[in-house]
Design a protein that fits this description.
Layout (H helix, E strand, L loop, with lengths): L11 H14 L12 H8 L3 H13 L3 E4 L3 E4 L30 E2 L12 H13 L15 H15 L8 E4 L2 H11 L6 E5 L4 H8 L4 E5 L7 H5 L5 E4 L13 H12 L5 E5 L24 E6 L11 E4 L2 H9 L10 H12 L2 H25 L5 E4 L6 E6 L5 H10 L2 E2 L1 E2 L13 E5 L8 H11 L7
Parallel strand pairs: 3-13, 5-6, 5-7, 7-8, 8-9
Antiparallel strand pairs: 1-2, 4-10, 9-10, 11-12, 12-15, 14-15
Family: In the C-terminal section; belongs to the class-I pyridoxal-phosphate-dependent aminotransferase family.
Pfam families: Aminotran_1_2, GntR
Keywords: Aminotransferase, DNA-binding, Pyridoxal phosphate, Transcription, Transcription regulation, Transferase
């Protein structure tokens, strides 16, 4: 911390004396704090021990420090310091701790999971393996693409659960969907431009804007994105959530999927980025295969995460690249990657390898379905008040308010009733609705609190409530 400028005319010992003195006055060196020995400080600053000794002697004479025989040099007590002119004292403002805003009592938070059923026991077991066993390879940087063991487990899981045909060599691991999208945009043809669903997760257009990539929005219909909306533009990349559109929850029909794949296959620089959001949790009908499983022209880039299926804090997202893009990724120099800690990758790969992941998903699917059913049962009792959409899959659905209140009034009532819920308008960019709609996330609500949450939300919307 003591910078010495040997080019100055001022003697080096005086520079060192002033640096230490000012650090004591400003409180950077505390009372009774031990200073480095003369030898250590001399070696560190590349000056002689005599220089350090002269600086320390001056500080002792003025009462800034004191020495103990065979112990070293220490900062003097504050009340023994000589008076210093006021202008010498640093005017640095104290650091204020930013307090996290507490959640509302009735929180329909998106992205939250059921914490009571997190597989702590299994994660402790595999964490113990990762750290207690001599896993010396895990402390190395590892493959920028992600550990092979985890990529292998993801490949097998995607084939059995989503029909995705891939090899570990096509899978890349990152810490978020946003990072994956950043990587993918570096692999796409030059001068590419995006078509985005409206509504959409805001972080997607935000990332494209930061990377100066052009994009436009097209509306999502009741059966997903329509190719007719895409054909009128020259953009070559479509970002889509076909299995459970975020946030309105519709599922893209097979007819529209086939049309979109045909559109992508008509030009070598067209691609579809399939974000398989919330696909693990489908409650009605047969599981719908991923769009990638229908792709024979290798135009689909598949993206997903473990944020819902395990936990948001795991910070593992993954993408399946077409083989030609995977080869391009592997040959790229200085491309992003390698951001997920290897011990975390090991824990998740062991969790999957032991079939505990599948059991966990089956268990959580039942729990989330129970929560969803309770909410739907309550809301369905008031058909003139609200309408439910997009509840077949995932951990949220959309409620449309039909009692004549506008969005602003609804939000004011929610706040008055200590309710936290997001309006759909927060995810809309161009195609807005006049009827207020809200996205109801239920994953993080404890089962015993579901009824109270539903009751409070309905109570806040009663027409005889004061506005």
């Amino acid at each position: 911390m003591f910078h010495i400028d040997k080019s100055q005319k001022q003697p080096i010992y005086m520079q060192l004396y002033e640096k230490i003195r000012d650090s004591i006055i400003n409180g950077q060196l505390q009372e009774d704090e031990k200073l480095p020995s003369k030898r250590h400080l001399g070696d560190y600053l590349s000056v002689s021990q005599t220089t350090v000794e002269n600086a320390y002697a001056q500080l002792i004479d003025e009462g800034y420090i004191y020495s103990k025989q065979r112990s070293g040099f220490f900062v003097s007590a504050i009340d023994t310091l000589p008076l210093i002119p006021q202008q010498r004292v640093s005017s640095v403002s104290p650091i204020r701790r930013v307090e996290t805003q507490p959640l509302s009592r009735y929180s329909f938070q998106l992205g939250a999971i059921d914490k009571a059923h997190f597989p702590f026991e299994q994660f402790r077991k595999y964490a113990k393996e990762a750290f207690d066993t001599l896993q010396d390879t895990l402390i190395e940087s590892g493959d920028v693409q992600g550990d092979f063991m985890l990529r292998q487990q993801i490949s097998q899981y995607l084939f059995h659960s989503r029909g995705v045909e891939t090899t570990p060599e096509q899978v890349i691991i990152a810490s978020s969907t946003e990072q994956l999208l950043s990587i993918i945009t570096d692999l796409l043809p030059e001068n590419h431009s995006f078509i985005l669903e409206d509504p959409i997760y805001p972080q997607v257009p935000q990332l494209l804007s930061r990377k100066h990539i052009s994009y436009r929005f097209v509306p999502v219909c009741h059966d997903g994105l329509h190719v007719e909306h895409i054909d009128q533009y020259d953009d070559n990349i479509v970002y889509i959530t076909p299995s459970h559109q975020f946030p309105i929850g519709v599922t893209m029909t097979l007819q529209n999927r086939i049309k979109l794949l045909k559109w992508a296959s008509q030009h070598p620089e067209r691609y579809i980025i399939e974000d398989d959001y919330d696909s693990e949790f489908r409650y009605e009908g047969k599981p719908i295969p991923a769009l990638q499983s229908l792709d024979k022209a290798e135009r689909v880039i598949y993206v997903s995460t473990f944020s819902k299926s395990i936990a948001p804090s795991i910070r593992i997202a993954y993408a399946v690249l077409p083989r030609h893009l995977a080869k391009l990724y592997q040959n790229k120099i200085n491309i992003e990657g390698g951001t997920v800690p290897r011990h975390t990758q090991y824990i998740v790969s062991r969790f999957m390898e032991s079939n505990q992941f599948e059991r966990h998903l089956n268990r959580m699917r039942k729990i989330y379905r129970q929560k969803r059913d309770v909410l739907i049962e309550y809301f369905s009792q008031y058909p003139t008040l609200c309408q439910i959409n997009g509840a077949q899959t995932g951990m949220h659905f959309v409620v449309t308010i039909q009692n004549g209140l506008n969005e602003q009034t609804c939000m004011a009532r929610f706040k008055a009733h200590d309710i936290d819920v997001q309006p759909l308008s927060q995810y809309l960019f161009q195609h807005h609705n006049t009827t207020p709609q809200f996205v109801i996330g239920f994953g993080g609500i404890p089962m015993e609190d579901i009824e109270a949450h539903a009751t409070q939300l309905l109570k806040s919307l009663e027409i005889n409530e004061s506005s």
